[in-house]
Structure formats: structure tokens, C-alpha cells
Amino acid sequence: EGLMPQDLINAKPVAAAVKEFFGSSQLSQFMDQNNPLSEITHKRRVSALGPGGLTRERAGFEVRDVHPTHYGRVCPIETPEGPNIGLINSLAAYARTNQYGFLESPYRVVKDALVTDEIVFLSAIEEADHVIAQASATMNDKKVLIDELVAVRHLNEFTV
């Protein structure tokens, strides 16, 4: 009857783990608050380092290089120079994370050469099942693709 939560659970191990994470983890940084843009950029940073991830010393060129699954999800330009190159990246402009933590990119649905206003977010795994046209594909005023051949991506390969 008179039991309190602190009587049942010892909070010291939880508090110690939280202090260790924020005090010494590779994933913990002070917020860059020089201006609003730098703060937003800092919040959209993605790291491959840390617990369960890679180390700077053991990460080879293959891991640091741009992969076709990064398309629309990770900015290929914004990465630090030096030992962290390719290990710390930023999300692309419209990328987001889904409920499982996977990065998703938005795409407009095309039906019978008509570019609709319907937008779907696809992860790299889901994207493999679709044919993805380039955003630069030419269309007329009625949003109909006018080129007979359009450059597309399918199964991480570029074709026409």
C-alpha cells in the first residue's frame, strides 16, 4: 500500500548510464547554436560512429564512399574533412526517418506518364521494387512526361 516507485527500482544505474552517454559518448555533442541554420544542420546530422557502429581507424573507402542507396537520403557533399569524412553525413533536404529508424526519401507517383501530386516516402529497401525517374525529366503544363525515353533508376542501376 505505502510503496513508492523509488522503493522498487534503483535509479542510480539508469542515471549513471545517462550521464555516461551524454558525458563521454561519441554520439554526444554540444549543440551548434551560432545561428538558426547551423542549429538545424546540427540536428540533421547522421553518424556511422559510436556504440555498435564503426571506428575511424577501421572504416575503409567502401564505407566512406557514396552509395546508390544514399540517393535522396544523405547529402553527398556535406561531410567533414579529415578522419571523419564519409562517416558523419547530413540528411538530404526532404529526407526523414521512419518509425523503424530507416531513412526515407519522397517521390511523386507517375501513372500513365502523368506526374500526380501524390507523394510517397520510400526507404532504400522499398525503392528497389519501383522504377524511379529523375526529377529533371521534362513534362508539359499538364504534368505529363513528354520524352519518349526517360532516365530512370531501378535496382540501384541507372538506365534509359
TrEMBL record:
The keyword Transferase applies. It catalyses: RNA(n) + a ribonucleoside 5'-triphosphate = RNA(n+1) + diphosphate. One of its GO terms (molecular function) is DNA-directed RNA polymerase activity. GO terms for cellular component: DNA-directed RNA polymerase complex. GO terms for biological process: DNA-templated transcription. Residues 29-96 form the RNA polymerase Rpb2 domain. Keywords: DNA-directed RNA polymerase, Nucleotidyltransferase, Transcription, Transferase. InterPro entries: DNA-dir_RNA_pol_bsu_ext_1_sf, DNA-dir_RNA_pol_bsu_external_1, DNA-dir_RNA_pol_su2, RNA_pol_Rpb2_3. Residues 107-160 form the DNA-directed RNA polymerase beta subunit external domain. Its EC number is 2.7.7.6. Gene3D superfamilies: 3.90.1100.10, DNA-directed RNA polymerase, beta subunit, external 1 domain (2.30.150.10). It comes from the Bacteria. PANTHER family: DNA-DIRECTED RNA POLYMERASE I SUBUNIT 2. Belongs to the RNA polymerase beta chain family. This is DNA-directed RNA polymerase. The gene is rpoB.
